[in-house]
Amino acid sequence: MGYTNSPLVDHVHISPNRTPGRVCIDTITIHCVVGQCSVETLGNVFAPTSKRASSNYGIGYDGRVGMYVEEKDRSWCTSSTANDNRAITIEVASNTTEPLAVRQAAYDKLILLVADICRRNGIKKLVWSTDKNTRVNHLNGCNMTVHRDYANKSCPGTWLYDRMGQIAAAVNAKLAPDPWGKDGDEWRYRSPASGEYVADMWVESERGIWYYIGADGIMVHSGLTHVHACRGIYRDGRDAGVFPAGWYYFRDDNENGLLGECRSGEVTVTASTAPQVQAVNKAVFNPKHDGRFGQCLTVNGRPAEDVLGLEK
Ligand SMILES: [Zn+2]
Q: Distance between CA 24 and CA 35 in Å, rounded?
């Protein structure tokens, strides 16, 4: 496959301490520098041939990223040719004494860099294990290794070692595809479980706001729309209950102006998605479902179904 390099790189200083080519990229190995250095300083450390060491990337104390060995080549980083032939190695600036803690800016960039490496190299999920045998033999999908597996070293230090599971979870959250997608100006929603676009159902956003995806698979973002009875399912699989059939009002005034929020109470409606009705003056909504939804009861004092010409 064709290898690429990270667009997150701020500084390039290719080290002579490398071997051209590699076997593959299917592993991430995170190291600690044992020093709160910049990416320039780390580049100078890896510059002399006498050093006999390098890494693919380094992250400075300030969160900037250095590249010292391109991803297509093997770095000399983990005391293991076999590991470095398949791993992208990353040195992270750290304190000089245990637990060899890393600053927040460097940690935050580490998550972004590892997610970028995984995305570009087809690593769909990071898997960590606290068991050395599982790591070095890549059992159960484990694809994170540490320097101490291959040499009598404490690297990556207690601070990073204890956070490897957390790092994997943070990276995996970034690798998960966004269920929301744009289709022209319209939003669609892909079920995280099935990967298929959904239609005629309620979905809940990350921020806990519910949206309705119409029968045509397009999110309803303003006006009145008729919702068929459907069952809402929370992302964790919990049943959110049945939303009864009826007319619902969606407003279009939230911060990005694209997503709609259903609300209850008496509201003035100036446009409608109902084909029979272009303008409605006042509609009364019945609060439902913990007050988060409103079902349209009347429009201009008449039953909504009469006014809107809804089939009975
Ligand atoms: Zn190391």
A: 30
With 0-12 / 13-18 / 19 or more C-beta atoms within 10 angstroms meaning exposed / middle / buried, residue 57 is buried
What is the H or E stretch that residue 109 is in? helix 104-120
* Residue pointed to by tokens 């729309």: 225
223 torsion bin: left (phi>0), alpha (psi -120 to 50), beta (else): left
| Distance, CA of 149 to CA of 132 (rounded, Å) | 6
Mean of pLDDT values over 186-199: 84
Q: Where are the domains of the chain?
A: 11-175, 180-308
155 CA to middle of ligand 1, Å?
A: 5
Instruction: Please tell me the distance between residue 77's alpha carbon and the centre of ligand 1 in angstroms.
Output: 6
Measured in angstroms, how far is the CA atom of residue 172 from the centroid of ligand 1?
A: 23
Tens digits of residue pLDDT in 278-293:
556 677 777 655 555 6
Residue type, 194: S
Question: How many A from CA of 81 to the centre of ligand 1?
Answer: 14
Global pTM value: 0.66
**Cβ(88)–Cβ(28) under 8 Å?**
yes
pLDDT of residue 34: 97
Ligand 1 centroid from CA 160, angstroms: 11
What's the CA-to-centroid distance between 221 and ligand 1, angstroms? 52
d(CA 283, CA 134): 62
CA 89 to centroid of ligand 1, rounded, Å = 9
**156 CA → ligand 1 middle, Å:** 6
pLDDT band at 257 (very low <50, low <70, confident <90, very high): very low
Calculated CA dihedral for residues 107, 123, 28, 62, nearest 10 degrees? -20
CATH 3.40.50.2000 holds for 180-308:
no
The CATH number given to 11-175 is 3.40.80.10
